Amino acid sequence: MKSHRSYPFYFVLAALVLYVTFFIIPSLSGIAYSFTDWSGYSDEVEFVGLDNFRTILSPDENYLSFIGNTLLFTFWTIIIKTVFGLALALLLNQGVRWFVNGYRVLIYLPVILPTLVVALIFRSILDPASGLLNSALRGIGLDALALPWLTDPRIALYSVIGVDSWKGIGYIMVILLAGLQTIPKDLYEAASIDGASAWAKFRFITLPMLMPALMIVTVLNVLYGLRVFDIVYALTNGGPGYATEVLSTEIFKAFSKGQFGLGTAISSILFLILVVTGYLVIRVMERQSDRE
Amino acid sequence: MTATCNTTSTARGAMHRLALAGVSCLVFALTGSASFAADKVTLTYMASQDWVKDAEQTLAKKFEEKTGIAIDFQILPSGQYFNVLQTKLNSGEGPDLFGGQSGVTDLKLQYNVEKNAVDLTNEPWATKEDKLVAAQSTLGGKLYGLTYWDVLGNTWVISYNKKLFAQYGLSEPKTYAEFKAACQKLLDNGVQPIYEPVADGWHHVLWFPELGPRFEQVTPGLADALNANKATFAGNPTMLSAVTELKEMFDLGYMGKNALADVYTGASKAMASGKVGMVLANTGFGSLVEHDYPDMKASDIGVFLMPLADNQQVNINPAGPTHFIYSGSAHVDAAKQYLAFLAEPENVDYFIDNTPTAMTLPFDGAKSKFSPDVQALFDSHKDARGTVYQTAVAYVNPQWMDLGADLTAMFTGSMGPDKVLANIDKRRADLAKAARDPAWKK
């Protein structure tokens, strides 16, 4: 008796045709166009080899700093969202006894706000002269901390990271909370009987059991962070100067300026970074999970 | 039984007729309303913030009352406008009407009007438009846009608070050294010398290419040499002076502490507050301030030329925000009607009367309302004027926002003035090569 039943290949044909037509071919075309000088200023398209990639990787251009900004944004948003998301999830799972659903809604609320709305609100809050944050800081005598949050190139990217983390923590918290609720209670009871401290329970029960959820949030954060566009575009538009420019905003600008060849080359580099980083993150976390 | 059947049959027939009548009424009502809806045309007009004045919106309502054609204004923040518009044009999803800067290079490179815009050469208003201005909307002998903007009076000059200048014994500076001394004096007395809205990304750029007539005065024929790829921005001492002086103004705090967060829409408020000495603005700025803040009169605001690189040439720009009809629009005729309506003499005068910043419009017979100060400035510089470089030199205007980002980077210390100039050359070369410009072919 057969345990598996094979279906004929033509069952997947329709889906495969759609996938190839609308995903594989455009993706490959994009990579192919990255080797051309395709632009909105001329109908002729010429093969230029690696010229676009040379431009992007040239130290005389700003593209390397855009790649750096993208990686920095991704790194810090992962750390902040995961740490605070986990802390809030732990609090809501064990620490808070009443109004739990209310807290969940409040913490999740920023996630459902449109990014543009969040950006407009924070542009107002972070205005150096009349913003709520600096007014409050000056009001309590902390004038030295009243900084030009979005206009000082040294801190603008971190301000964007802060705003994005504020918006995204609720999403991470919900995933981690779901993960926490799948951990059997008897493990903690057994550990308590054995005299385990709270830290020991967290280290040897919560963390290993939460590893699948942590892997999901890390991968999601990596993919989101590397492709970030809307919050940067709406908050600073890549400025001041190029201090907060990331790959996706630059791709948008290249395309909107009609520099299609260059835009597809930047897209190809972003694609490569996404694949390599995603693969590395999954491998590292799988290894960690196996060790636990 | 038969009677019953007949009665039932009659009742069914009545029901059928009733149902048929009902359906007919419904179909009639639906087709009637569909037909009515089909007659109602709404044109979308996409433009950058500041380009659509209140007076035009009022005229659009009058146009709707007259023709039944409504105008849906889609006004975008200036820092994002070009990106969004070009994305729409490049993806073939343009609005019925779109705003754009005229200028021959821009027509081709920024908007590709031969593909994206409708030929308006034979429109009734075309012959009434100022020829210098119309030339900036013309490509290959075809007129593509209606420039509904005070380009002739839209000279960017430094507007200053006369009372503050008098209070601190300052006179109108004619050199950079005098300008710097005036700024320092104001700063020392607790007055912000200049309100410079860098956050918009476009305004602080004006300080450089608007000095084109000065560059041309120092190096006659420079614009032609640049267009022929026989000269560069980098290495030009006058240009380097201008950019270096601009950085010095920022570094010395003359633009205020919040210049990087300030926006141009706040300029009239800043001037009216009496806490700011100067604003780089167009010639109608005094009227705008009086309109927005009646306590300050237009006559309280004087004007002088941008004195970077010791400039004393009037900077004329015959190009400006222009209305184009998108070639892919389903309502080209309706859009043409709207432009013709705007260009009617009584509507031109209405626009001038009701737009504080508009001193005139570039149409035959349009009225003029320059202030005595501005008129005096123009009169005293009749033989000292020229065309700004964003119009005179190819491939400068399309990189306006990039140049803005570079200048901001220069202000914040991550780029030097020489690199700013080198980047202009680099982008010009890229654009020229992309456009297959013969002057850039090896």
Structure description:
Chain A has 292 residues and is an all-alpha fold. Chain A has a domain at 71-244: MetI-like (MetI-like fold), CATH 1.10.3720. In chain A, 70% of the residues lie in helices and 0% in strands. Chain A has helices spanning 13-33, 51-57, 63-95, 100-112, 115-125, 132-139, 156-181, 185-193, 198-226, 230-235, 247-256, 260-291. In chain A, helix 3 (63-95) packs antiparallel against helix 9, helix 7 (156-181) packs across helix 9 (198-226) and helix 9 (198-226) runs antiparallel to helix 12 (260-291). The longest helix of chain A has 33 residues, at 63-95. The two termini of chain A are 39 Å apart. The mean pLDDT of chain A is 91. Chain B is globular. Residues 1-12 and 18-38 of chain B have low confidence and may be disordered. Chain B contains 19 helices and 13 strands. In chain B, strands 2-1-3-12-6 form a five-stranded mixed β-sheet, with helices on both faces. The longest helix of chain B has 38 residues, at 2-39. In chain B, a hairpin with a 2-residue loop joins strand 4 and strand 5 (142-143). Chain B has two domains: 39-149 and 320-360, D-Maltodextrin-Binding Protein, domain 2 (3-Layer(aba) Sandwich); 156-316 and 374-440, Periplasmic binding protein-like II (D-Maltodextrin-Binding Protein, domain 2, 3-Layer(aba) Sandwich). With 442 residues, chain B is an alpha/beta fold.
